[in-house]
Amino acid sequence: MKNHRYLLKDSFQAESLAEDLKVQLEVNRFDNYTITPVASRNELIVQVPDAAGDLEDTVDQFMADYHQGKMLE
Questions:
Q1: For 16-27, how does the pLDDT look when each residue is reduced to its tens digit (9 = 90+)?
Q2: Which of 4, 12, 13, 31 is the most exposed place for a label (fewest CB within 10 A)?
């Protein structure tokens, strides 16, 4: 599994954005992921399987305007 840590811009709330991302991924029928909002650091941690190309692309496209930094763990 891979962890993608998105450091959110100050104008967005981690909990709210996590719910929006979850809806987007459900609409696209993805099911093997975990989204963890971290309110104290205003970031989202999205865990995806190692070989999840389409899922990762969808998450990256969704998050493009919401984050100021990204770390892959």
A1: 999 999 999 999
A2: 31
Q: Are 67 and 27 in contact (CB under 8 A)?
A: no
Q: What's the DSSP call for residue 13?
A: -
Residue 24 near residue 63, CB atoms below 8 Å: no
Q: Report residue 17 as tokens.
A: 């954005």
Task: Please give the Cα distance from 19 to 2 (Å, whole number).
Answer: 20
Helix (H) or strand (E) holding 31: none
- Chain centre to alpha carbon of residue 1: 14
pTM over 0.85: yes
Mean pLDDT value across the chain: 94
Cα gap 37→18, rounded to integer Å? 6
